[in-house]
Amino acid sequence: MTNGEVTDLMYEFFVMAIQLAGPPLLLSMLIGILIAIIQAATQIHEQTLTFVPKLLVIGLVLVFTGSTMLATLQDFTVRLFRMIQVG
Q: With a threshold of 0.85, does the pTM exceed it?
């Protein structure tokens, strides 16, 4: 493998990591901000009020998109192994 191929592979890996991790992280952040606003308005500051909804949202996102995420990771891994075998 040349340096250019490795660089392209790393770039593709980072883009894929952002695509896979982005939706759960963004939704978790939005839920956290929404709950923080509600907590500020009601002056109830309980740690579990933010943790449980975030956990549920991340779980639901993974249930609905987990198979797509797994397929993407499998395709990338197969391509990586084929590049290693050819090289």
A: no
